[in-house]
Amino acid sequence: MNKHLYNSIFYTKNRLMKPQLIRDIVIAWKNQYLPAEELRDIRVKKLSKLLHHAYENCPFYREKFDKAGFHPDNFRELKDIEKIPLLSKSEIRDNLDTITASNLPTSRRDVVNTGGTTGIPMKLYRDEAAKDLMTAMYLRTTKMYGCSVGSKTAWIWGLKKENEYLDFRNHDFKSQHIKNTSWYNGFDMNDKSMREFAAFSFKFKPELMISYVSSLFEYAHFLKQNRIKFYPLTAIWLTAEPVEAIQRQLIEEVFQCPTYSQYGSSEILHIATECNAHKGLHIHADSRYVEILDAEGKSLGPDEPGYIVVTDLENFIMPFIRYKNDDISSFLMDECSCGSKFPKLNPVMGRVYNVFKLKSGKQIYGHMFSRKLFDLVDEIQCFQVHQTAHESITISIVPGIIEDRGKFISELTGYFTYYTGNEVEYTFRFVDDIPREKSGKLMYTKSDIK
């Protein structure tokens, strides 16, 4: 569908059927430029409303708050939320019924089943009203990238069995011609389909690409090697994984457009997004309250890496209050040239299972390995660094052009030993392929040590 026609239909329809959505879109755009004091007041007001709602309508939270000696009436400022214990994945799985609000009709529930990167299944609910606010956040982000309502969007994503019909090769009319979206199944990437998707792009003519980082990096590498062109894009939205500099460089070289990193999780979407300044990620602070904590639960300052803890200010059907999602990052405190007043995160460094723990107690972030291996673009087509024991790390490599494998292994071992010392024995495996996770993502680094 023509973008301008789509835009006109979208706004006309929703002014009649969902006027609140139109208001949400307008307010969302304005909120990012509010002074810090006004933004703080919005968050305090939303948090107070959420905490009272959770206490009154979610037995799980009433019990949790009472045990901690916390009552929503005593919430006065943002730091008061620190009196509430953290929320874990296991608590969500084990207490679904009592976390879910009892006063809201089931018709407002949007059911989501997710395993995330961990592969641990989890069921959750999203509020229909919260979905409209997520639409507003999505449109705020894409507008920043130079796109608009109706911009054709190409997704490289892991499609499940029930939605494989969306794959571009199946020519789903509703998806491609009414919703202006095309999908390439990230679970089924091979030479033939990668060539076909590039050819299809000139028929579909997308403005925006949304993709897992690892999938698009693999695709960009293939296109460059085979000198295949892709339809010129306006922007690329990278998500689901941290972005290494070498990945961004290759993707932007091949697709000839800027890339933007977006951070969210299966449980809470749209947490933070990169702007045109490309200096950190702006937290969607009008809808998400983010804390960075150390292992003891103490709040950390700027540039101090710690665990990300998120409170979703919009989802009332199943409140996520102080949810620890196992990701690691730090706050970035500087005024952004883009004009947004939203606070910023440094790029996410990975997850807890991307942290390599040695017997001595030393911890090494996975990007120490991936940063070096990504630099070897001619020698390595794909890789995975896997810690199976405190003293044992296996590095699987799909090789490119390696003239002397013995020398190659020796140099890499020496480089990594500089960081880990002699505590670790490295094993190198040269393989034809590296399996992806159930989510469709490729984990470049992972540790089995808890």
Give the strand line-up of the largest sheet: 4-3-5-6-7-8-9-14-13
CATH topology of the domain at 354-447: GMP Synthetase, Chain A, domain 3
Beta-strand percent range:
15-25%
Derived from helix and strand composition plus strand pairing, the structural class reads alpha/beta
* Sequence stretches where pLDDT stays below 50 over 5 or more residues: none
Mean pLDDT figure: 90
Helical content band: 25-40%
What would you call the shape? globular
Radius of gyration based on Cα positions: 23 Å
Which CATH architecture of the domain at 354-447?
2-Layer Sandwich
What would CATH call the homologous superfamily of the domain at 354-447?
ANL, C-terminal domain
The quaternary state of the protein chains shown equals single chain
Number of strands: 21
For the termini, the CA-CA separation is 50 Å
CATH hierarchy class name of the domain at 354-447: Alpha Beta
The description of the largest β-sheet is: 9 strands, mixed
Tally of individual helices: 13
